Amino acid sequence: MTFDEVLCVIGGFGKFQKLLFVWICIPQIFLAFHMFVSVFTGATPPHLCRPRWSSDGFPLPPGFNLSLLSTSDGWTQLSCRNPLNQSDLGDGLSAGSCEGGWEYSTEIYQSTIVTEWDLVCDDAKLNSLGSSFYMFGLLIGAVVYGHLADKYGRRIIILVNLLIQAVFGVGAAFSPNFYIYTALRFVVGTTISGVIMNAFVLGTEWTGPKERLLAGIITDYAFGCGYIMLAGLAYLIRDWRKLQLVISAPGFLLIFYIWVLPKSARWLVANNRKEEAWELIQKAAQINGNPLTKDLEMCQVLNVEEKGELKKTYSFFDLVRTPTMRKRSLIVFYLWFANVLVYYGLSLHISDFEMNIYLTQLIFGLVEMPARTITLFTLNRSRKISQLAFLAVGGIAFLLTIFVPSDLSIIKTVLAMIGKFGITASLSIIYVYSAEVFPTVIRQKGIGIGSMCARAGGVLAPMLYLLKGISPKAPMFLCGLCPLLGSALTLLLPETANMPLPDTIEDVEGPNHRHKMALQCTVDTTAHLRLYTVCTAYASNLKAVYFSRSQTQKLKMYIEVSLKHNCLVSQMKMNYRTAP
């Protein structure tokens, strides 16, 4: 019996899985905090060059508004050059660099890393580089923790990353200078990938085939909630150190995860630790109210060790070694890159929309919710069509903004929101889709490399709007082109909706994987085995088969078994009904 069939017996999404997703979703809120907090902690407020003669601050003229200094092309010369005297303010006269520092508007922010360490003018590029370095941490984490999770398990990597995230996140709030702050944030970035990848995979591997899309969508809802909540926190807490502390310190409260977060039984089986896996399965069945019968316990249902391929050691090279895996891997990797480049390219530059930054953050967060919700209705029908359709919606909407005149800002903003809607929905789908494309033996490696490609897009995202120096339309053109190319490439990927997960590379390359419908049992000696069980299989029409409770009681099969055998579902003389 395959692991997917075991899940259908014990419950594909019962109380056990629901509790698991509660534990998985809580950290997602904090991940959203860390991902977008730089929008506020790294914001650059209007500023003036402080005169050399002023030691107690620059006495601005009554009613002078620093925000008048900002223009569409950046700060005026007055914000980066020293006026000759106070009467020269606003006259455009200057006398060199700002040796005395800067005065910053406190109308919106009490303090940011920019105001504390003067990351303006010649040093303004350090702010963008710091954001890219943080995203580079996510890239490194995707590679390192993806490999470690395959070797040591999902649970331990999640626990270690949550601890590191809390420690270094709090440390960043007390950074004495920008370079230490950037280094600490880099470490936090590595843990983001470690938690996102492994929490998602842990949920996926415990969820039945028909409910598996919830593994991605539910966690995305939690991430979206964090997106929205950050707008409120940042509005209430205008000091960057306090805000950094508030989003990081609660991570220490998750220490109780040591006792409540389960291991992945599927991973244990794949690594030939069947005794531990069976104990977890029994526990899950008990919590779900489907305790396994003694007769079923006699059957070694976790027979995947018979697949010699699961005993092998796999490397990242196996993702591209065979033709089908190579095609799938390269396309999935590009989809990760394009989705994240566009998603974070927009989300980290919300100040460019010339609206209240807190309101913009809130609106962008609210867009996440319907985008996540609509995928619940489309993914059950098709992962493939959903992926390519939302990529196309996002790409077309962004390209259309190029042709909208600048004076029609409302239309341009609406199109940008539609594009954000499409790319957010697409990003939700790629988590589910990619996990189902890769087989169990290299799933974590595949998702790890995919996440690494995504983080490469994330590294470039903070610099996306630097393309305005080439052309004001260049950023949106790129935001439209990348999703459209991804939409076309998705046509080459397989459909995975309501399919059993492939366990081995042979399952992916073999022609008959989709139509496999055997239940396998293994016993120590030849004997008569009486089975009382609910049997689930995938027939050629690819729909699950369920038996009613009364039919289960009638299932009394006496079969002579040897060390290896297949009990074909087609040979079971019993009426069954197709799931609605």
TrEMBL record:
It is found in: Membrane. The chain crosses the membrane at residues 20-43, 132-149, 156-174, 180-201, 213-237, 243-261, 331-351, 357-378, 385-404, 410-434. It comes from the Eukaryota. Residues 80-498 form the Major facilitator superfamily (MFS) profile domain. Keywords: Membrane, Transmembrane, Transmembrane helix. Its main location: membrane. The keyword Transmembrane applies. GO terms for molecular function: transmembrane transporter activity. It is a multi-pass membrane protein. GO terms for cellular component: membrane. The keyword Ribonucleoprotein does not apply. This is Solute carrier family 22 member 6-B. The lineage of its organism: Eukaryota, Metazoa, Chordata, Craniata, Vertebrata.
